Give the backbone structure.
Amino acid sequence: MTNSDQNDKSNTPTVALVGKPVTLSAIRRAEAQRIAAERAAAEADANREAPPRPGLVDPTGAPVVVALPPPVTVRFSQFFWILSLLAGAVGVVYLFIIRKPHLEDIVAIVKEVDPARAEETYTTVADIISWSLFGVLVAVLLVQVTALVSYANRRPGIRWWMLGALVVLVGVFFAARELVAFGDRGAPLAYLLATQIGLLVLGFLFALLPPALRWTARGHDVAHRITGEKITGRS
């Protein structure tokens, strides 16, 4: 070995790393590679597109309560109930018109029950029967109007009120057939009451269909206001 080779080895410092000698030039090369890798990673990050930032305003907007059209079954039930109200109102007006002319026929029916009473008693009883029937029919109409308005506002339990009005109306119909709605004057009243009952039943059946039940149970319609579009929602 020459003296020059010995001098080169003596001039290159060595570092012991994990039990193995490492030259200073190897450490510099590793450091240069690390710096180059960091620069490449920085350039890659700079060239990468940033993800879109979330908007500060929700484009769909907050949910709002809207008045959407009711289902077809609800409209049918309301339609038949309104017709039932009209038939009942006509029946009440007709009963008021024929009350005095029809009073003698009612007196004849009362006399068949107990003929040993004074004439004034029969007249009073006939008058009470006529006014009682008139009052019950008016009360049923008021219940129907209240229930119809509450049904349009989706109040719970309104169908029970309609069912109660129907039961009362059926009982009044059979009582009227025996006491008032007979003969030439009373027959139209019987037809009007039967029409009122039939329309009320139709409206009640439509109100029991699933779309109408869901519409009432929901209570209100919620929709989202879309930016630049109309309010949309589910009924």
Q: What stands out?
A: The mean pLDDT is 78.
